Amino acid sequence: MSRLVVVSNRLADPRRPAAGGLAVALGDALNRSGGLWFGWSGTVRPQLQPGESRLHQRQAGRVTLATVDLATEDHVAYYQGYSNSVLWPVFHYRLDLADFHSAYLDGYRRVNRMFAARLLPLLRDDDLIWIHDYHLIPLAAELRALGCRQRIGFFLHIPVPPPLLLAALPQHEWLMRAFFAYDLVGLQSEADVGHFRRYMINEANAEDLGAGRLAAFSRELRVGAFPIGMDVQEFERLGRGAEAVQTGEALRAEYARRQLLLGIDRLDYSKGIPQRVRAFRHLLEKYPENRGRSTLIMIASPSRDDVLAYTDLRQELEGLCGAINGDYGDLDWMPLRYIHRIVARRRVPGLCRAARVGLVTPLRDGMNLVAKEYVVSQDAQDPGVLVLSRFAGAAEQLKDALLVNPYDTESMAAAIQTALHMPLEERQQRHARLMESIRQHDVHWWRRSFLQALQEPAA
């Protein structure tokens, strides 16, 4: 049995429940054969020169955790720069927020080259290598240049934009050619696969071989949709915990006379939070029966507060929330509760269970597991309703949610109104179908299906 090697920008000890469903799922696979998980340690060392690193190894059960430190200049260029100031905004359709500084690309290439040099001596001939996310797109090409011949798969957790947006990236040809060093590329949705395929055919002159296979640069690549799921059993267990139960009971007692709406996000411009708040304001304007009866709890946890775009977003959101409460609030009712801090994960199932409506309305998202967590948290006998952006990857699977266009304030408000007044029988039917899909395509299914595809011999 081949050993699994997982590579990601950051890693977690899979033995710790707090690591989350993804870490647990990967940890399960790593433990089966004894495995290696490689990535950045999270430590930045000013004394290191660009391209230098320090390797650390420790055991976590049968899993070896191998990490490297980064020089300050590399962290700025590779992580803050190219990964999060170029690739993140472009892949989320926000060219206007991208900072195409040439030094960022140099640092991105340098760190991926360093990762490859540090990882290669740790590899065995029969290893199966699984690389994750946009930070490490060129890593397989760097490994191949050093002589690596093992099968290598890649999974992109963020969305793929249309070909013309990808072509706006300086040196996009180099970046996209790097995908052909992989044997398998997994994407979140069929829409992503379509964008990826059209780019490769139109811009890279790739030949479509059918069955998800493309040929270019003297290599064949298989690409497919492998929508990531959640660890349903782990989250259900979390929902039975004391903190989740107490949170749910406290909210139901405090808002016994009102219906709760809930949004939980990182404070990121891709999440559509200002648009959601504007839709809630329109709900109060157009459907006045909700005044005094409905409250939106808006949790936006801190995210990259040192980046100007995020500072501006926070100021905009605080202004919108304050205006709604000032215009519509009363002595015994505040329409919107805005919380800008991290809420403990143990409390999340209780928050979701207490909410009549879950609002997951990103402008663009690779998947968005909050949508699935909201559904799993519900009481099947009296479930809430998920209002979901059609631009979240989850929308391809969760068709029984109320799908909305987050750019259309009026229609989103109308969907929220529908959710608040949906009959019990329809809520139960929708919830049952959503749960069936979420259970069938959980995080363990995602891991198994990807690794099985990666091990299949080339056609």
Plain-language structure description:
With 459 residues, the chain is an alpha/beta fold. It folds into 2 domains: 4-229 and 443-455, Glycogen Phosphorylase B (Rossmann fold, 3-Layer(aba) Sandwich); 232-440, Rossmann fold (3-Layer(aba) Sandwich), CATH 3.40.50.2000. It is built from 16 helices and 16 strands. It has helices at 21-33, 72-91, 102-119, 139-145, 163-166, 172-177, 190-203, 232-239, 242-254, 273-286, 308-328, 348-354, 369-377, 409-420, 424-440, 443-455, and strands spanning 4-7, 35-45, 55-60, 63-71, 128-132, 151-155, 184-187, 207-210, 213-216, 219-225, 259-266, 294-301, 336-339, 357-360, 385-389, 402-404. The strands form 2 sheets. Strands 3-4-2-1-5-6-7-10-9-8 form a 10-stranded mixed sheet, with helices on both faces. A 6-stranded parallel sheet has the order 13-12-11-14-15-16, with helices on both faces. Strand 3 and strand 4 (63-71) form a beta hairpin. Helix 9 packs parallel to helix 12, helix 10 (273-286) runs parallel beside helix 11 (308-328) and helix 10 packs across helix 14 (409-420). The longest helix is centred in the C-terminal third of the chain and has 21 residues, at 308-328. It is globular and about 70 Å long.
